[in-house]
Design goal:
This protein is an alpha+beta fold. Helices cover 26% and strands 26% of the residues. The protein contains eleven helices and 17 strands.
Length: 382
């Protein structure tokens, strides 16, 4: 489980260090930085897939995603005694992302390019990467580090350092190029764990949504990001997953309704009083979205981390309490981060003793998080 998430220099997240629990709820008013935090998590996961630089380019490049305010705010600026203005920098311009758990931690530092003569001269460069054991980075527990083009890995047998790369390209991560089962085992393990993180923010329910169409079904223990394989995912839960919890979840939300899957792997819902089941094409947007969330959260192959962005979208308020119960049940199998601006869902989740509420607000354009535990994190230096 991730115990700490750190972001520095990304959009409104000048410096944020969040303590995480098994079930985490991130909330705040519009414009407080919820979407930026969600994007930062996606960007972190894309490092392990070799897509981080391309993702930043799609957002407008590093200069468009960097924190736009001063490096630091003085007390006089925060009190309004002096206007907000730029100061002499004490550190390099950078975008930093990282996380730590009880067993491993990882951080990456991306900076401005040095090859200005290239047609790709606007691409960000990976300046530093580090992997360590335990919750906080230190000299003794560092197991792999990248500085510029040079990568070294510590041997798990002897504890000595071995050069892994001497000319790693600035757009390649050591996570994708230096992981092997011999000397780079920690890199390999952490990379595969990060690749398995799941994000759900685009579960379509419109009239032309893929989830409303018949499908060709195969075993589907993981619902796709757009929900196009919902029928196969539900049938997989019925056959090799927790079918009893699925049945109870749907009955809890829809007054005793029952889900089934048709011959062409189209989701069907039988409701009390109706003589035939309703096909997915007939379900309301809110009903279909709840079914999609159920399939995602009751996956027979739960990830270590699942992130949901505004799962309450399209849902009737009466479905928010059942959704909170579903999220809490799912958090027994995997760590969950929910980004939401629904006060009712946030309040419902807050009733559970193991939930962790993270509230965001804006101050002088900067996202301020509560709680924000700087003492639990240390960035690798350039």
């Amino acid at each position: 489980m991730i115990n700490c998430l750190a972001v520095s220099g990304y959009r409104s997240l000048r410096e944020v260090t969040l303590p995480l629990a098994r079930l985490n709820v991130i909330t705040g008013p519009n414009g407080s930085g919820k979407s930026s935090l969600y994007r930062a998590l996606r960007l972190l996961s894309e490092v392990a897939q070799g897509r981080a630089v391309a993702s930043l380019a799609a957002e407008g490049g590093l200069t468009s995603t960097l924190w736009a305010g001063p490096e630091k705010f003085s007390q006089a600026m925060r009190s309004g005694t002096y206007p907000v203005q730029g100061t002499v920098r004490s550190g390099p311009i950078s975008l930093k992302l990282g996380f730590s758990s009880d067993d491993f931690g990882y951080a990456i530092d991306l900076g401005l390019p040095t090859n200005s003569g290239s047609r790709f001269g606007q691409d960000p460069e990976i300046k530093v990467e580090a992997i360590w054991t335990g919750p906080v980075l230190g000299r003794a527990n560092l197991v792999a580090e990248r500085r510029g083009q040079f990568v070294r890995v510590r041997s798990s047998d002897t504890g000595s350092w071995r050069e892994s790369f001497s000319s790693l390209a600035a757009f390649d991560s050591m996570m994708t190029h230096c992981a092997d089962a011999a000397d780079g085992l920690e890199l390999l393990l952490l990379r595969e764990r990060m690749r398995a993180w799941r994000f759900y923010d685009d579960l379509r329910t419109d009239r032309d949504a893929p989830a409303r169409r018949p499908q060709i079904g195969t075993f589907t223990p993981v619902l796709s990001g757009d929900g196009s394989d919902i029928g196969a995912a539900i049938q997989t839960i019925l056959e090799i997953g927790d079918a009893d919890t699925l049945e109870a979840t749907i009955a809890d939300a829809f007054d005793g309704a029952v889900l089934s899957v048709g011959e062409r792997f189209e989701v069907e819902m039988r409701q009390y009083g109706l003589l035939r089941p309703l096909a997915a094409s007939e379900l309301s947007d809110g009903t279909l979205r709840y079914v999609l969330l159920t399939a995602a959260l009751l996956s027979p192959r739960p990830p270590e981390l699942m992130i949901l962005n505004e799962p309450e979208a399209s849902l009737h308020p009466d479905l928010l309490d059942p959704l909170a119960r579903l999220l809490t049940k799912a958090s027994e199998q995997c760590q969950i981060i929910v980004v939401s601006h629904s006060s009712r869902l946030v309040d419902a989740l807050g009733q559970y003793p193991d939930s962790n509420l993270i509230e965001l607000r804006k101050e002088l354009g900067e996202t301020i998080a509560s709680p924000n535990d700087y003492s639990s994190w240390k960035w690798p230096s350039r």
